C-alpha cells in the first residue's frame, strides 16, 4: 500500500490514542495531551456526580504571547458507547481498511480534534498575530454541558474570540444554524391493585393516564407540522416526540407508575416555554383532576432533563464569509441536530460556524472517516490559522 499522509502510524493515530484515553480515564490524562503538544492548558473540573470528567482549554499564543481574541477550535473528547455493537475490528484501535479509517468517534468527531492536535507543533511555530484556542469538552452527546463550561470560561476570562469553529461531521460544509433540543421526563403515579379490580375505585392506572399527555404531545406536534413557523432547515418545522417509556411490573397488576421521556427540537424562533405552557396547562387543568377523582394522591411530575439552545448565525457575518472563502464553498446549511455552537455564540459572544470531517456509520458499528476528509480538514485548519497572520483588524 502506498504511503498516505493519514496512515495509522502517524501523529493522527497518536492524537486519537490520546483523545481516547482522555475520554475513558481520568482528567489528568487530558492534561497530558496538552503537555505532549507543548501547550499549557486549563482543566475545568466538573461537579461530583460527573467525577473524573473535565474540559480542557489550551491557548496557542499569538506573536508576543498574545492570548486574547483569535479563533476557538472546539470538539468533545468523549464518545458514545459500543455496547452491543458488532465491530469488525477493535473500536478503540484505529484500523485502516479498504481506504477508510475505522474506530469509535472517527467521524463524530474525533477526526477534527485529532487533526487540530496533530497540527499543534506546526501551529506553534507559525507566526500569527492572534492566538488559537483549543476547547475540548465532554458530554456533548447528551447535554453539551462541557461546551457550556468552556464558553463560560471564555467569557469570564475576556477572551473575546473573533470566531469559533465547532468540528461536527458536516463533510466540511459550513453550517450556520441548528435547532435547539430539550428533553423532559414525565412521571405518572397512580395506585396499584390486582388487575381484577380495575375500574372499581380500588386502583388508578398510571399507564392509562400516561397515554393521555402522550396523545396531547402528538396533537401539539401535528400543530407545529401543519401551522408552525417555517424555516429553511432540512425539516422546516419544530418537532415534538415521545421517545422512551416504561411502566408496570406484572401482567396481572394495575400499574402504579409510568415514566416517559419526550423531546422538543425547536427552530431558533420557537420557545420551549410556549410549548411547555400548553403541556402543563393540559396536565394541571384537565388530566390531574381526573386522576385525583380516582386516587387523591395521584401525581404527574414533569422534570426537565437537559436543554441545548438553538443556534442561528449569520450568512453575512465576516467570520462566516472568511470560513466560506477558505473552504471555497459559499453555500451554508441549517441542521436539525444541536451542538455546542449555541453556547459559544450565546455565552462567549463568538461568531460561530460548524464545520468538520465526516465519514459514515456515526454511533454505529464500524464507524469510519476517510483520509480525503482528514486531508481537507487539515488544509482548512491551516488556512484558518494562516488568516491569523494578519493584523488584529483582519477579521
TrEMBL record:
GO biological process: L-arginine biosynthetic process
GO cellular component: cytoplasm
The keyword Transcription is annotated on this UniProt entry: no
Residue intervals of the Peptidase M20 dimerisation domain: 176-288
Any Pfam family matching the protein: M20_dimer
Subcellular localization, as worded in the UniProt entry: Cytoplasm
Keywords: Amino-acid biosynthesis, Arginine biosynthesis, Cytoplasm, Hydrolase, Metal-binding, Zinc
Any one Gene Ontology molecular-function term assigned to this protein's record: acetylornithine deacetylase activity
SUPFAM superfamilies according to UniProt: Bacterial exopeptidase dimerisation domain, Zn-dependent exopeptidases
Keyword Ubl conjugation attributed: no
Name of the protein in question: Peptidase M20 dimerisation domain-containing protein
Species classification: Eukaryota, Discoba, Euglenozoa, Kinetoplastea, Metakinetoplastina
